[in-house]
Amino acid sequence: MKITIFLIIVAVILIAAWYFENHRRDALAKAAQRIGLTLDPGQQRLPQFVDDADFYLFNQGQPLIQNMMRGGRIGDRILVFNYTFEATQGFEGRREIPSLTDEGVILTHMQTVVAFHEITPLPHFDLSPNDKSKRTLNTDFRTVAFDETPNFTQNYRLAAREEAKVRSLFNNDLLTHFANNPGWVVESRGDRVIFYQKDRRVDPELITEFIDQAHSLLDLLRSK
């Protein structure tokens, strides 16, 4: 009897998950159509030219994404997709799937990513919330501190390959803007840059607003 109840519960959970994902996919298809993008539904491999950029995020799990929108928007080439990875609580992820023998609770992290490519190159940098979580970057990245702007430092941490270029980029106006808009992660790798918020998978009805916010941040970065 207990086994039967357990199987029924599992079946209900699976059916609910299937329904929710199909509903989300359909809603994303409508959103993509409204803003002139093409939706590639379901799971697929991360595009190679994005993987080759060596973004921190995509080294936290397997190079697999879901429901990718692609196309042109306001003169830029853009990709929008969901990226999911699993990691042991309190630790960073890795390309290998966490093992059941790993110590600690395994958590699932889902986020919506907006990626721009073929843009005028920006300096290589990594901007992330100052939440004290571990974030192991490439060995050629160094911390860039702005002690004179405590509001920015309170909300963000910044690392870069070429400190002088990034200091020039992050002037007072840009520092103030990010200080007033916490929670963003920006990873720049030359002509490719991604924007996301940790553990936030954006609802389809908010996806256009989220894309526009990321686009506005890109415009601020390249206007300097």
Write structural notes for this entry:
The protein has about 220 residues and is α+β, with helices and mostly antiparallel strands. The chain has one domain. The protein is about 35% helix and about 35% strand. The chain contains 6 helices and 7 strands, in the order αβαββββαβααβα. It has helices at about 1-35, 50, 150-155, 165-170, 170-180, 205-220, and strands spanning about 40-45, 65-75, 75-90, 105-130, 140-145, 155-160, 185-195. Strands 1, 2, 3, 4, 5, 6 and 7 form a 7-stranded antiparallel sheet that branches. A hairpin with a 2-residue loop joins β2 (about 65-75) and β3. The radius of gyration is 19 Å and the shape is globular. The protein starts with a helix and ends with a helix. The relative contact order is 0.15.
Largest sheet: 7 strands, antiparallel
Low-confidence blocks of residues: none
Shape: globular
Number of helices: 6
Proportion of beta-strand residues: 25-35%
Radius of gyration: 19 Å
Strand tally, please?
A: 7
Q: Which structural class do you get from the secondary structure elements?
A: alpha+beta
Kindly give the count of domains: 1
Mean pLDDT: 90
How far from one another are the termini?
Answer: 67 Å
Tell me the series of helices and strands, N- to C-terminal.
HEHEEEEHEHHEH
Helix content: 25-40%
Name a few traits of the molecule.
7-stranded antiparallel sheet; 224 residues; alpha+beta; DUF3137 domain-containing protein
Quick structural summary:
This protein has 224 residues and is α+β, with helices and mostly antiparallel strands. It is built from six helices and seven strands; from the N terminus they run αβαββββαβααβα.
